[in-house]
Structure formats: C-alpha cells, structure tokens
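User: I've been trying to design a sequence by hand for this structure and keep getting stuck. Would you show me what you'd pick, starting by listing the structure so we're on the same page?

Assistant: Good idea, let's start from the same input. This is the structure you sent:
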C-alpha cells in the first residue's frame, strides 16, 4: 500500500513538472494542485475490490487536472487558463481620493482561448473594506445584456483601467483588499490574489 502511494506521488510530481513546461496547463496546475491537495489525494488512495484497481477519491485530481494519470477527458474551462492580474495606484489614499485599478487578462498558452460571457463586460474587480464588507463588486458594473465570446490569441493581453473612491463605498479607514478577474455578476472568474489599499483618515 505504501509502495503504491509512493508510485502515485511520483506520477503526480512528474505531471506537475510537465505542466510547468506546458503553457496550456502550467498556470492552472500551479493554481489548483497544492502540496496539501496532493498529500490528501495520496492519503485517500484506496483499493476498490470490485474493480481490482487503485482509485483516487479526489475529483479535481482525478478528472480536472491529472488527465495523463487518471485518463479522464473532462474539458478545462478556458477562463481558468487565462492569466489575470491587478494593480492599483496609489496604494494609500484618503476617503475622498480616487484610486486607479488596472485589470488585465493574458493568454500565455500556445492556443487560442474562447471565453463565453452572458453580458458585455469582460473584466472586473471587487473591493473589500477593513470590516470585511464587499463595498464594490462585479454587480456594480453597468454592462450590456448581450451574450458574447471573448477570443484571445496566444500572447494577447486584454487590459482595462477603472477608477474607484473609498467615499463611494463605506468610507471606512483602514486596510482594503482589491481583486481583479474576468467579469461575472455572481463573482469574479479566475480572480487574482488581493492587493492592499490603505485608506487614511
């Protein structure tokens, strides 16, 4: 049993190394396959006597990423293959000041990506104030109701600049967090890690 788990772990590591060198899977693999997730999958690897083979119980590892190991054909959402980024300027303001929020989405893969939208906004951002309240998000955007498809060829970068003021939100002072990503009224798709904004008195 221990030997089988070690073999499986080596297969996971080998896949991750191949994914790192693959523009299509590297970004997604780095986001979703964490060391904790891999250890959990190894611990949950059990023997199925009905099928006389080893099975992995974690669906993400089985069908979402490790296609070469698990042999699944589950398609990957193109939105997850886009490299999203966010930056702000300045990083500290007073409540009445304005912050420039820059959001981008880049296709670092070797193939064309087509991402479907239910509205006319491609990118978006959300702001969480010092109390943890979301004071601005994708649902605040004014978008057309028409559905469309965003096409990004290899190497193409889509970027947008937005302006936001703490006074239009809660106006609280303290540390804020801002994330960018692909727009969705129910929450950002493929959101970035947050950047911090300090709102002074």
């Amino acid at each position: 049993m221990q030997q089988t788990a070690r073999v499986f772990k080596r297969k996971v590591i080998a896949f991750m190394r191949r994914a790192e060198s693959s523009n299509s899977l590297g970004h997604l693999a780095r986001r979703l396959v964490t060391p904790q997730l891999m250890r959990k999958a190894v611990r949950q690897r059990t023997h199925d006597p009905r099928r006389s083979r080893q099975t992995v119980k974690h669906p993400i590892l089985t069908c979402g990423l490790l296609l070469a190991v698990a042999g699944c054909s589950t398609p990957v959402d193109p939105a997850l293959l886009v490299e999203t980024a966010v930056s702000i300027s300045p990083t500290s303001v007073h409540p009445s000041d304005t912050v420039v929020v820059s959001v981008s989405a880049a296709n670092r893969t070797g193939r064309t990506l087509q991402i479907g939208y239910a509205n006319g906004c491609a990118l978006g951002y959300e702001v969480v104030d010092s109390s943890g309240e979301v004071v601005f998000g994708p649902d605040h955007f004014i978008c057309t109701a028409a559905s469309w498809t965003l096409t990004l060829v290899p190497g193409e970068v889509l970027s947008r600049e937005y302006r936001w003021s703490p006074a239009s939100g809660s106006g609280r002072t303290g540390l804020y967090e801002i994330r960018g990503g692909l727009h969705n009224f129910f929450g950002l798709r493929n959101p970035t890690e947050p950047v911090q904004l300090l709102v002074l008195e």
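That's my pick for every position. To get oriented when you compare it with your attempt: Residues 64 and 131 are 35 Å apart (CA to CA). The helical segments are 2-20, 26-32, 35-43, 59-65, 67-70, 78-81.
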